[in-house]
Amino acid sequence: NGSNEIIRVDTNDLNFNTRTKEYWIDNADNINVTPHGILEFDGTVYWVELTGDHLGELDPDTGTMTRYPFPTTGAGAHSAWADSRGQIWYTYFASAGRIGRFDTKTKEFTEWEPLDGWSGYGIVVDRQDRVWAVGLHTHATLMYNQETQEWKSYPMTNPARRPAIDANGKIWAAHYYGNTITMIDPVTDEVTSYELPLKDGNPYDIWPDNDNNLWIENGIYNSMVKFDQTTKEFTYFPFPELRAHTPKLDLDPAGVMWFTLRNSSGPGISSLRPRGNVPAERSAAQ
C-alpha cells in the first residue's frame, strides 16, 4: 500500500519483466492514497483507501479506473469484502465508529454506527450474507444480519485483527495481544477459544485451507502456525526469511496460500503449499 498503485502478478509467469502489471491511481491531490483491502468481485477489482477517502474500482481488461468518494472523510478506510449481492462492505480504521456498504450497481453508499468510537479492522461476509467484523480495540466480534437488520456482539478476551470463515461456516478470529484464536458458531452462538502453545504469541491473520485447517500468522515467532481442527494441534512453520511478518493471507483455487512478507529485504509475494508439491487433484483423491 505504499506505491499508490494496484499491482497484478501472474504467478505462472517466471519472467520478472513480464509477470507484473501496475495500475497507477491518479488523484487530484497527487498523494499516495494508500490502497488497502484489495479484492476482486465478478471480474472487477475494488479497494479502499487509507488516506485517499475513496473506494476504487478497476476493470483489469481495459485499465479503466473509477474512484468514488466516501461519505465519511479522514477516517482511514481499512478493509473490504464483497457479499453475494454485489455489495462491498468496508471498515474505517480511525475511530470513526462506522461500517459501510457500497452498492456496485447503483454506486451508492450506506453506513452504520454499530459502536461509538469503534476502530474497525478486518471484515468478511458469510454465505448467508451476514457481515462479520472486528475492531482494533474492541474485545468482541460484531455481526450484522442483513435480513433482520440487527447487530450482534460476540465477546472475546482480547481484540482481534482479521476474522475468517471456515468450510463449515464457523467464524474465526486471532487475538493479536492474547496468543489465542476464537471460534464462533453462528448456529448455537457458542464461542470457543484455543490458546497457542508457545507463550506471548501475537497471532495476526487467520485463514482456512482446503482441508479446513486454520493457518495463523505469528510474527513474534517468525512463523505460520497450522491449527488442525480435528486433533486440536498446533504446528509451527518458519517463514523463509528472518524478521518477517504478513498482515494478510489468502487461498487460491489450487489450494495455495499467498501472502506478502514485510522484512528487511523489501516487499515481495510468498506462497505456501499446505499439501506440499502434490497437485491439488491428486491430493484430493488420496
Structure, explained:
33% of the residues are buried. The protein contains 1 helix and 25 strands. Helix content is 2%, strand content 46%. It is an all-beta fold. It is globular, with a radius of gyration of 19 Å. The chain starts with a strand and ends with a helix. It folds into 2 domains: 1-155, YVTN repeat-like/Quinoprotein amine dehydrogenase (Methylamine Dehydrogenase, Chain H); 156-286, Methylamine Dehydrogenase, Chain H (7 Propeller). The longest helix is centred in the C-terminal third of the chain and has 6 residues, at 280-285. The chain has a 4-stranded antiparallel sheet with strand order 3-4-5-6, with no helix packed on it.
Summarize the structure.
2% of the residues lie in helices and 46% in strands.
Mean pLDDT: 93
Main beta sheet: strand number and arrangement?
Answer: 4 strands, antiparallel
The computed structural class is mainly beta
Number of helices, counting only DSSP H or I runs of 4 residues or more:
1
Rg of Cα set: 19 Å
The global form is globular
CATH class label of the largest domain: Mainly Beta
The name CATH uses for the topology of the largest domain is Methylamine Dehydrogenase, Chain H
What is the CATH superfamily label of the largest domain?
Answer: YVTN repeat-like/Quinoprotein amine dehydrogenase
Measured as a percent range, the helix fraction is under 10%
